[in-house]
Fold this protein.
Amino acid sequence: MTAPHTPTFEDPLWYKDAVIYQVHIKSFFDATNDGVGDFPGLIEKLDYIAALGVNAIWLLPFYPSPRRDDGYDIADYRNVHPEYGTMADVRRFIHEAHKRDIRVITELVINHTSDQHPWFQKARAAKPGSAARDFYVWSDNDKKYDGTRIIFVDTEKSNWTWDETAQAFYWHRFFSHQPDLNFDNPKVLKEVLNIMRFWLDLGVDGLRLDAVPYLIERDGTNNENLSETHDVLKTIRAALDAHAPGRMLLAEANQWPEDAQQYFGQGDECHMSFHFPLMPRMYMAIAQEDRFPITDIMRQTPEIPELCQWAIFLRNHDELTLEMVTDSERDYLWNTYAADRRARINLGIRRRLAPLMERDRRRIELMNGLLLSMPGTPVIYYGDEIGMGDNIHLGDRDGVRTPMQWSPDRNGGFSRANPADLVLPPVMDPLYGFDAVNVEAQAADPHSLLSWMRRMLAVRKRHRAFGRGTQQFLYPGNRKVLAYLRLYPVPDGETETILCVYNLSRTAQAVELDLSAHVGRVPVDLIGGAAFPPIGQLSYLLTLPPFGFFWFILATEAALPPWHIRPSVPMPELATLVVRDGLADVLAPSARHVLESEALPAYLMRRRWFASKDHAIKSARLAQTDKIPGRSFDILLTEIEVAVGARTERYLLPLGISWDGETNAALPQQLALARIRQTRRMGYLTDAFAVDAFPLGLIRALRARTVVPVQDGEIRCLPTSHLDAVELPDNPEIQRLSAEQSNSSLIVGKKIIMKIIRRVMQGVNPEVEMVRHLTAHGYATPRPCWARSPVSAMTAASTA
Ligand code: NOJ
C-alpha cells in the first residue's frame, strides 16, 4: 500500500501519472459572447477541470486557420486564431493552468499545413526545384507513390491534387486543401524545430504530434512508418530535450501495436503514443460479451521503453476509427454501433461515448473503468464526463464537437450569443440536450455521472499502479469476465497490487479467479473501502452484476489501508413476536412455532456453546420453560432440546426481554432470538445472561435461599456459606468474560464469578462437584456459592 499520491509538478515522469482532459477551445466556453469558445472562457472554466480531478489539458489546434479541417489546417504556426483570443490570453491560460497543477499539451501539426499558409502560397508560385517550392511534395503526375492508402476515403479520391498556379500535383495524406510538408528538405525540419521551441518557451508542457507516420515518402512503400520518419522524430526529440527537458512528445500514430510502439524508439523518440488498436477492442469486448478482443490485442502489444507510456482513450474529436481492426471486425462494429449509416464516416463512427452505450449508465461506467485502469495514461474527451450526446446530422466530425453543456440556460450556458451565431448548434434533443444533460445539474447531484467520474478519478490518483504498474491478465474460465492485476513495486520493496475485474456481459456473472500467488491477502474494494474475504488456497469466487466491475487493492493483513471498512458481522434478521401480557406470551403456539422452527436453529448455529455445529439440526424445541418472576426482570428459565443425528442434546438458555431504550449495551441485541413488540414498545427476546438484572436477581435469590415453584417441582436457591461473606455494592459492575465460550461467565463487582453451564446432562456436573470438593477441603479460590443439582446447569463461585 502506498500513501495517497499527488503527482508533483517537478516530476519528469509526470505524464505517467497524468489524466488528460481533451478540450476544443471553440466549443468549451464563450466568455466574449460572440458565439465561439475562447481562451478567456477556458480560463473561467479551469476550476471545473481541476475539480474533475485531471491534471493535464490537451488543446485541439487553436492557431489561425481557414478551419476547413477544424484547425488542423494551420495558416500560421505562431499565433492564435483571433476568434479564440490573443497571445496574451494564451500566456494567461498556461499560467492559470500551471497555478492549478495542470499541465498543458498543445498540437504540433507538422505533416501538413493549410493551403493558405504563406509557405504554400510561396511554394506554388516559386520555380520548380527552388528552396521555397521544396517546402512541399510535388509531382508532374498523380501516379507516384501509388501504394499509399487514402485516409479520408469519404472526401478524397487521390493523395495528389493538381495546382493550377504551380502547374504540378502536390501531395496530401488528408484533405486536398492540406498539402504535406516535405521533410526531405532540411529547412522544413528547421522551421518545425523553431516552432516547437516557440511554444516550449511559452510554457507548454507537451506536444501532440499530429499524423506522424506520414512525414516522409519513398517510392515503392506504403509511405507509413518509414525509418526516415523515425529519424525526423529522433531529431525533434533531441531538440526538445536540449531546449526544455521534462517536456513531453505524444505521437498520433494510428497504427497496429507493433508499428505504434516504434514511435517510442529506444526511448529516444516520443514519450507517449496513443494505443489506437486497444480502443475499438474495448467496444468490441462489451458488444461480444467476451474479453478476448482486449486480452488478444494486449498480448500483441510489445513492451515499451521504461520511460515511455501509452495514451489510452475511449473517444476523441475524430470518428471512432476502425482502421486498426480487420474488415470483419469493422463490419461487426459498424453494425453494432452505427446501424444508422449517417453515424459512419470514413472508416469509423462519428458518435460520442454515451450514445454508443445507449445511455446505459452501467456500460458507460464499465468503459470508463477500463479507461482508468488499463495500462497507460487515460484521455477523457470533454463532455463525456457528463454523458453528452452527439448530432450525426452535422457535417464531417462536427457532430462530436458541439458546445459543452454547462446548464439548462440559453445555448446550454455555453454562450450568451444569439443562437444563430453559435460556432456549432448545441445538442438539443430530448435525451441528450442541454436541458437533460448539463454540468450544473450533475454537479449538484451526488449520483450523477459527473460525480461518479470525480470519485473514480480521485481513487485512481491514490494508486501509482494504475499509471505505472505492469499488467498481468488472469484467464478465468468465464470469458465474459475480464480480470487483470496491476502491479507496481513501490520504493519500500512492497508491490502495490490492484485487481481489476469486469463483467462484460448484460447478465450477472460468477467468476473463479486463480489468486493463489496472493494467498493471505485481503481484497479491499478501492471504491467503497469494504474488505472482502481473504484469499485462500482455493480459487477466489466473485459474483458481478450486469456490466459490474471491481477494483481491489490486495492488502496484506498487516498493511490494510487505513480507509478500509472491516466487514461487520451482519445482524440476523429477527422475527418479531407480539406479546400482549409479557414474557409468557412467547410460549403461545404461533410465537413458539416461530421460535422453534426458525429462530432457534439459526441461533444455535451461531453459539459457541452449541457443541454440534458441524451437524444439521433436525429439530429444536423449548423442552422445559419455567417463568421466574423478578423485581424488574422476568426470566423464562428454558431448556432447549436439539435433535442432531440420532441423538438429542439439552442446553440451558435463560430468556428475558430487554426493552429498547432501557440499555445502551449491544449484548442483549447480539444475543437476541427474536424481536418483541408489546403494542408500541419494542424489545429483544434475549439470553438473560446479557441483561444485568439476571445475575443480580440470582444473587439476591441465593442470599434469600429462595424456593421457586415450577411446573414439575421447585427450584431451590442453595448457596454455600461463602456467599454470605461476600459484600457487594448497590450497583456492582458486571463484566462479561466473553459471550461466546463453551459456557458463559461473568464477574459481579470483581468478587463473584458466575458461570452458566450450558450443556444440561444427567448427574452432578463434574466442574461443580470438583470446585465444591476442593472448597470443602480448604482450597481458597474459587469457592462455590451455589449450584443446581442433580441436573447441574448453573454455578456461582466467589473470588474473594
Ligand atoms: C488527425 C486529427 O486528429 C484529425 O482531426 C485531422 O483531421 C487529421 N489529423 C488531419 O489533420
Notes: The chain has 21 helices and 35 strands. The pocket of 1-deoxynojirimycin is lined by residues 69, 72, 174, 210-211, 252, 317-318 (CB under 6 Å). The first helix runs from residue 25 to 28. The mean pLDDT is 92.
